[in-house]
Amino acid sequence: MPIELIPPEALPEETAPETPPEETPPEQTEITGETPAEEPVRRGRGRPAGSKNKAKATPTPRAAPQPVATPQPAPVEPPVEPPPPKPVVRRPRAPRKPPPVEEPESPPETPQSYRTRVQREYREIRTQQHLERRDRFSSMLNRFMH
User: Fold this and answer.
1) How far is residue 39's CA from residue 61's CA, in Å, rounded to a whole number?
2) Between these two residues, 42 and 27, which has the higher pLDDT value?
């Protein structure tokens, strides 16, 4: 939808009255008994701008009030003391250091540590076998000699 621009010269001139409308003088309104129609002025909230503080009127002193018969107050019961507050129980402090974690007996076995362990066990077995063989032969020799 195209927008058409109109030059300012082509706009119609508004006819606005340059002179204010004539007001009827107050004398004529009294004579004729007509009042001009006035719309009520709407006022905003708060004090109007430019207004000044006004002194408040002091109230006139009144006569002393007549004594009024007051009913007798109900008998007052002694105040009931509330039970004593419960003692405050504090939780024990958390330990500052975490408890020691139990370490496993040995670290996980690596291929190299596995080979080392197997070779050590093999040497121990061979040594034991040698000692047993030697003891056996020694005992046989001792039997023959003695």
Assistant:
1) 42
2) 42
